[in-house]
Amino acid sequence: MSINKTLPYAGIRVVEFTHMVMGPTCGMILADLGAEVIKVEPIDGDKTRKLLGSGAGFFPMFNRNKKSIALDMKSPEGIEIVKKLIATADVVSENFKSGVMAKLGLDYDILKKTNPRLIYASHKGFLPGPYDHRTALDEVVQMMGGLAYMTGPEDRPLRAGSSVNDIMGGVFGAIGVMAALRQRDVTGAGQEIQSALFESNVFLVGQHMMQYAVTGKAAKPMPSRISAWAIYDVFEVAGGEKIFLAVVSDTQWKIFCDAFGFADLYADPNLGQNNQRVEARSTLIPEVRKRLVGFTAKHISDVFEKHGLPFAPITRPEQLFEDPHLLATGGLAPIRITDGPKAGQETTTPLLPLMMDGKRLGIRHNPPKFSEQTQEILSQLGYSSEEISEFVENGSVHY
Length: 399
Description:
The structure is a single chain. By secondary structure, this protein is α/β, with parallel strands linked by helices. It has two domains: 13-204 and 323-398, 3-Layer(aba) Sandwich (Rossmann fold); 227-313, 2-Layer Sandwich (formyl-coa transferase, domain 3). Helix content is 40%, strand content 16%. It has helices at 22-32, 58-62, 76-86, 100-103, 108-114, 138-144, 147-151, 164-187, 197-204, 206-215, 250-260, 263-267, 274-279, 281-292, 297-306, 324-329, 374-380, 385-394; strands spanning 13-17, 36-42, 66-71, 91-94, 119-124, 192-196, 231-236, 242-247, 311-313, 332-336, 346-350, 355-356, 359-360, 397-398. A seven-stranded mixed sheet has the order 6-5-4-1-2-3-14, sandwiched between helices. Strand 1 (13-17), helix 1 (22-32) and strand 2 (36-42) form a beta-alpha-beta unit. It is elongated.
């Protein structure tokens, strides 16, 4: 096994039985941090590879820096190989429905008997409790966990435009694995980690729960919320372009008024303090909209940037491939697409949003082709070429 000793989890082997987003996100984070992550795929391949529409980006986004082995886990040979592979692992990660791994003899209670140092990460819809029998999806928990209510208008709950809970569930799963690895250094023992969609969602809306606890007033959905700042909105300007602008302090209010020549607004004693401007928002915002409508988005951006005021263009995801900041800072890294109509083509993908020792965590391996490392991994486990060929012939292995 090739080890990059500059990465914190180099030398850690993770065997993952995951698909879709949550489980693969956990593995991707550990892989980006240097772990050897072996993705065990079913004999006909991870179905995520073939998803269309909003799922088409799942596999290339969340499976980089991993290896792929394809096995029929319903066959005796496949299970034997899996158990041998797990015996070499520091971490097992799975996101099957509850009970599936137990039926295969691969749940934590069984595996820890022969490998007490094993860390076992389960990614579920719900942590153990009254809901844990339910089938969960990101949209399901967004609806029941208050996030969809906060995102859409009051009469129209709307899911967030990303798989936020799947991704957050994977992030928290990875944090749990990291904590368990550190604890194992102290105790010598592994443990089971559980992460869940619903609880991740509740954590995300916790600020709104605490807003109610502090104020006694229920949080309004984002489209109709009472903002803490008067100017904190999307404005339509010249040519129909839209731009988000924020003025979030009394100092910024003076800078804003000076920069655009709005001396009369700054002189208004009813607008001198932030809370006064918030109370006057119903008249202030239409007035500011009227005054800004003749400026181009670029001119406003230039003014806001020059004076250190918060602003943002309204950007579509596909435009981020050409974002100058991401390009200049190495926030996008090249990968090769492995599946679908553009298989074999090069593109770029976002890296983890952090730096270590002044460097971004890059991509060591493209998302694996289906079963790409099967022969390599089986050879490492001690199987001969003849045995591997026999496994392929009887359908228990694919490569």
